[in-house]
Structure formats: structure tokens, C-alpha cells
Write a structure and sequence with these properties.
Structural class: alpha/beta
Order of helices and strands: EHEHHHHEEHHHEHHH
Strand content: 5-15%
Number of helices: 11
Number of strands: 5
Distance between the termini: 45 Å
Radius of gyration: 22 Å
Helix content: 55-70%
Strand order of the largest sheet: 2-3-1-4-5
Shape: globular
Largest sheet: 5 strands, parallel
Length: 234
């Protein structure tokens, strides 16, 4: 099985690329979706976060007020690190569970959409790694327009993440999203051909089909050896 890493930065267009993969039938494990699930009321992640940040981060229905929590952690690096430490085990387990379910279904290629791919060291489990990149000014303007926020607030949120230039240097494939949507789609078509090419033998061995083939080979080998052994004993 080929596990493709997809990452980028806030307002870089990573989610657009993720949706393009989904539209082509490529299964995507979205870390943001997993993170929302582990913060649902009553879960282990919810209990840890409420204990650490207090009930003022809760909505009237008891669910976490995500925008409110975001304001707290983006304005304080230490609290952001604390939140990451609290949720990392739950998010990692959730991602692994989603991968296992896709493996059981026989998926040959999956995409891990993880904003903090490098920060949480999950890049070592993915190949190739795709980074959706934009220049700093484009990123800033898009974030301000998308969230209707001030330049100062937008820049603060961008600075809270690993720079896109650094991520680009760690990538196997870079998608430059500074242009139009049509230009992005043109790049994506080439990327899709790359990530859906035939599996290597190692990747095939990690797939369900590969595991079943290996198991079948062992069973056949045992049966043949048993027959040869019995024949020699007669």
C-alpha cells in the first residue's frame, strides 16, 4: 500500500488538493476530521482539553467552542504546544485506525491529509510527500480574504506554523498554488499520475493483496512440502 503525505499551510490550498484526490476516487484520511472527532463531547480528548483549558472553552451544549479554543492557542505558543501534546495520542490513534480500515478494504493508495505532517513526525511513514506551496504575500492575502481578519491577526496565525518554504524543501512533490484554479488542476493531473502509478514490490507487500498473496504462498508451500514428505515416507 502506498501512503501519500499531503501537507501545506493555512490558506495554501491544501484542502482543495485533498478534495481533488477525493473526486478522483483516491481515499483520503483527513487529520482535521479526526481531530474534530477526538474533541467531541465525552471523549478522552475532550476530557483532557477541558481539564487543561477550563469550561470557558465550551459551548452551551457542552461541545468545544473550536474558534474560541483557536484564539487561545494561537495567541500563546505554550498553550498551543500543550494542546498538541494532549491531543496527539488520540489523533495518531484515529489516523492509524482509518488507515487500517482502508487497508482492510484493499485500498492500494491512500492520502494522509495532515497539516502538521512534519511537526508530528508522520512524514517518515509517507512516500511521496506532497506540499502545496504559495508565496508569503499570496498566503497572507488569501487568509485575510477567507477569514475576513486583519493583516496582523492573519500574519500571527501564519507565523505560528512551520514556514511553507521549509516544508517545500522537505517535499518530494511541490504543487505551486500561486496561480489560478485551472493551473492548480493542471498540476494536479500530473501529480495524480505519479501517485497512482503501479506499486513497487515493497508497497505491494504492505497492501492487503500483498499480504494475502504472501499468506497463500506460505500455505501452498506447506501443502507441497507435506505432500513431498509423505511421498518420501511411503
Amino acid at each position: 500500500m502506498r501512503v501519500v503525505g499531503l501537507t501545506g499551510g493555512i490558506a495554501s490550498g491544501k484542502s482543495t488538493v485533498s478534495n481533488l484526490f477525493k473526486a478522483q476516487g483516491v481515499p483520503v484520511v483527513d487529520a482535521d476530521v479526526v481531530a474534530r472527532d477526538v474533541l467531541k463531547k465525552g471523549t478522552g480528548g475532550w476530557k483532557k482539553v477541558v481539564a487543561a483549558f477550563g469550561e470557558e472553552i465550551l459551548q452551551p451544549d457542552g461541545e468545544v467552542d473550536r474558534p474560541r479554543l483557536g484564539q487561545i492557542v494561537f495567541s500563546d505558543p505554550s498553550k498551543r504546544q500543550l494542546l498538541n501534546r494532549l491531543l496527539a495520542p488520540y489523533i495518531s490513534s484515529g489516523i492509524l485506525w482509518e488507515i487500517l480500515k482502508l487497508w482492510m478494504k484493499g485500498s492500494k493508495v491512500i492520502v494522509l491529509d495532515i497539516p502538521l505532517l512534519f511537526e508530528v513526525k508522520m512524514d517518515k511513514w509517507t512516500k511521496p510527500i506532497i506540499v502545496v506551496w504559495v508565496d508569503p504575500e499570496t498566503q497572507l492575502q488569501r487568509l485575510m480574504a477567507r477569514d475576513r481578519t486583519s493583516q496582523e491577526d492573519a500574519q500571527y496565525r501564519i507565523n505560528a506554523q512551520m514556514s511553507l518554504d521549509l516544508k517545500r524543501n522537505k517535499a518530494d512533490i511541490v504543487i505551486d498554488n500561486t496561480g489560478s484554479l485551472d493551473e492548480l488542476k493542471e498540476q494536479f493531473r500530473n501529480v495524480l499520475l505519479e501517485v497512482t502509478k503501479p506499486l513497487t514490490w515493497t508497497e505491494f507487500g504492505l497492501s492487503r493483496q500483498g499480504a494475502l498473496s504472501f499468506l497463500t504462498s506460505i500455505i501452498v508451500g506447506v501443502v507441497l512440502c507435506r505432500k513431498v514428505y509423505i511421498s518420501n515416507r511411503l
